[in-house]
Amino acid sequence: MPTIFTKIAKGEIPSYKVAENDDFYAFLDINPLTQGHTLVIPKNVENDYIFNLDDDTYLGLCAFAKKVAKALKAAVPCKRIGVAVLGMEVPHVHIHLVPLQTEQDLDFRKKKLELTPEEFSRTAAAILEEYEKL
């Protein structure tokens, strides 16, 4: 059975896309820690543990995430982009990219931001615009 992230990458479930290529997809987390909190996933591999990926997929995912992080930092004011790989909630490898002002911004126990659909759309469009410049 396809994961929710596979369905998102295939367009079966709507998302706020920020970047995409043939193998990877990046979209805004709908329960963000900070504005611009992005998830990066492989499109064609359903695996729930990043270190079980084959080397090409792992390296490609990391390179794609790096490019998305550069676009994210250009689009969302922050000191840096935090990175987390947990893999506990959704059984599909994903990398969290979180715009940070402080280390506490990467605390997954804290209350999530509540953004309007318009705020999500504006943020996604700004990140996608920066991504397309790279």
UniProtKB/TrEMBL annotation:
Residue numbers of motif Histidine triad motif?
Answer: 92-96
| Residue ranges of the TM segments | none
Domain HIT, which positions?
A: 4-108
GO biological process terms held by the UniProt record? nucleotide metabolic process
Location of the active site: 94
* Molecular function via GO: catalytic activity
> What is the protein's given name?
HIT family protein
Q: Tell me the organism.
A: Candidatus Cryptobacteroides intestinigallinarum
